[in-house]
Amino acid sequence: MSSNTSEVPVYDFLSIESKWRDQWETDEVHRIDENSSSPSYYCLDMFPYPSGSGLHVGHWRGYVLSDVYTRYKTIQGFQVLHPMGWDSFGLPAENDAILKNIHPRINTQKNIENMKRQLQEIGAMYDWSREINTSSPEYYRWTQWIFVKMFKKGLAYRKMMPINWCPNCKTGLANEEVEGGTCERCGAEVTKKDLLQWMLKITEYADRLLEDLDKLEWPDKVKTMQANWIGRSEGAQVVFSAIQATDGKQVDLPVYTTRPDTLFGATYMVLAPEHPDLQAIAAPDRWPELEAYRERARLTSDMDRQAVTREKTGLFTGAYAVNPVNGEKIPIWISDYVLVSYGTGAIMAVPAHDTRDFEFAKTFDLPIIEVIHNDDAVFDENGNLAEAYVGEGVLVNSGTFDGTDSVQARAAITENLQKKNKAQFKVNYRLRDWVFSRQRYWGEPIPIVHCPNCGEVPVPEEELPVLLPEVESYRPTGTGESPLAAIQDWVNVDCPTCGGPGQRETNTMPQWAGSSWYFLRYPSPQYDQGPFQKEAVQKWCPVDLYVGGVEHAILHLLYARFFTKFLHDIEVIPFDEPFLRLFNQGMICREGAKMSKSKGNVVNPDELVEQYGTDTVRIYELFVGPPELDSEWNDQGVTGVYRFLRKTWEFVLRNKNAGTEVSDRVLKRRHRLASEITDRLEQFRFNTAISAFMEYVNDVDGWTKEGDAVDKASLEWLTILLGPFAPHVSEELWERLGHEQSLFSEAEWPQFEEAYLQEDLVEIPVQINGKLRGTVELDVEASEEEARKAAMDLESVKRATEGKQIVKMIYVPGKVLNLVVR
Ligand code: ANZ
Ligand code: ZN
Fold first, then answer.
1. Atom of ligand 1 nearest to the CA of 342
2. What is the assigned CATH class of domain 760-821?
3. How many angstroms is it from 161 CA to the middle of ligand 1?
4. What is the pTM assigned to this prediction?
5. How is domain 233-428 classified at the CATH fold level?
């Protein structure tokens, strides 16, 4: 056996990596074979928007993860669809263009070229022949087609809406795009503006979007976020009678409550300031003040209005209402903490048992009546509630319902009022319909023509796409009109139905439109008879594994699920969930902060690739921490990983002429490695997979230097197992081990055998003060701690040590355990 290191060539990663990237390209190893009968697997990355700042090592993480899995599945014999494309319409791409003062089409193209080059540096197995781009007419033709289908099913409609308005982006935003009262894209304070908007009836799918979460292998955190966003609650709609301040006439004022059991504690009512009946009910002399308050409230975001910590403001309307359970007359107030868009836009206030109502009652000195009693409630020294008690309990001050359990009382009180037509059981959702129009240039034109005779007419499907016209001025106008409205010869068209003069819709779709169905396009990206070819979609979809950032937990994932369910319902696809398994990678941080260009803490992968090679950067991305958690980047760590790869390179090549002779422990070790790597891949524990490789190379390299024989198969197993993680160096080693075909087409995933995984167990005697008290079965390598624990489990040892102290312990692994007690 030779161990002459001078024979081993240097690990020249740069030439190895460029050699294999070219070779893979030529051999088209990234392409799937449509005619293959192998099982198929669809592994998808959330596609990026073509950003001007390009990729940093934080972005690499998800792409490396999905590529490792893709290559793993490929070696296992799957045909893996692993495509890439560009989410290139919408606000992020357009804002980048405006910032640079370059037309969005040109800027987008430039950004795509740069990002594509960077993505290729990762060495990922993307099938670029399937690249898609949501702003290309061949693609958005079908986004428009889906919109037309929705319109025809009554799921797209127009409505005058007080919508979220970003004064900086100068466009309306969906609820999902408002974060803590600010614009998700630019951070500006979001206000309200009344605009005629296109809406999609996602609420019609609320129940299914909620229930079907059960079908999905997604992180619980994401499922919970979606469930909370949909916000299903059960309660009752109860009718209070308002007495108009002017003429004493009664008007029905329904409220939605999740706690009908607290009805006897309703001491006042609150209307949303925008409530449509407000003016009719209120005392005329109070109207000017009420109207001014309404105007201020309208400009405040829903988020701020609902904040528990917000100081409560409000006004008395001058009118009263009658509580249907006891005929009590209670005052009607308005306050911005009640939202016009939720429930009925009016509430019965129960200050004793609702936190916001409690704050409000304290502020305006309104009565607080305890109606749910529980000893857990907190009272002050005068015996009054010190804070709202929001839990369950027994009814008090509630007439004939006194003594009833609060949960039972919910149904009992509602049923009672139901007989008098004063209540009904009701389910409510927080989810709102999706505001689907944007007053921006860079998006899919909404394919509708407005005709004075025919109303809203969809552009006939065969005339799609409605092309986005070239414009000089693409900047948002800020008037609430899209820049498209200024292009007269584009706007004016004949009505598709009657031929009369019509006008095109000038709003565009939001950035989320194209990404709501793109995963269906990859299986047949060039298909032009429909959005996708049915057989191709049936073969590949739904997506088996979807990898991306947790920032998409609500918006994109909810919209994509909605589109999928719709396409299922119109019978163009046979499944109704798009992504079976979801993996969210954690963020890469530096100095504790999320890596981002704006924070100035980015690490540029280009330089690292230059210095250490793609394989090293890939492995470090995996080694940096558990993939689902945020992890701190450390430059020293990169060097460590580089040394590991170099050591692996030298170890394999030093032994490359190995034959079939192998020592026992090397053989067992190889099976253990295969089992560890397979398990850790399946469980997405990539970081511990890397440590398993490091330990393996250390062990076996050391043993061979001690004279152990290593066989060729052991070297091949290591090379194959490492393939998904460090594909370039593995491919090179594979070739140097004498193979002519690519590892990714020729090699088979190593099959470990359980028999080799058994640990070596030995019986060792346990002595106490020199006397044999029993034996324990232990691994030869068991630690002192493990040995002591096993011994203490023996009854005989327990008895012999009872009430005594262990003063000394002598443990010889595999031989004996001696305890000295006193
Ligand atoms: C009386 C009550 C008593 C309430 C009590 C709660 C506790 P979820 O669970 O989110 O559906 N509410 C109803 N409509 C509202 C609106 N438009 N703006 C603000 N708040 C509104 O919330 C339902 C509860 O939120 C309802 O139940 C109502 O307050 C309030 F001890 O009614 B409750
Ligand atoms: Zn017409």
1. 17
2. alpha beta
3. 23
4. 0.85
5. Isoleucyl-tRNA Synthetase; domain 2 (3.90.740)
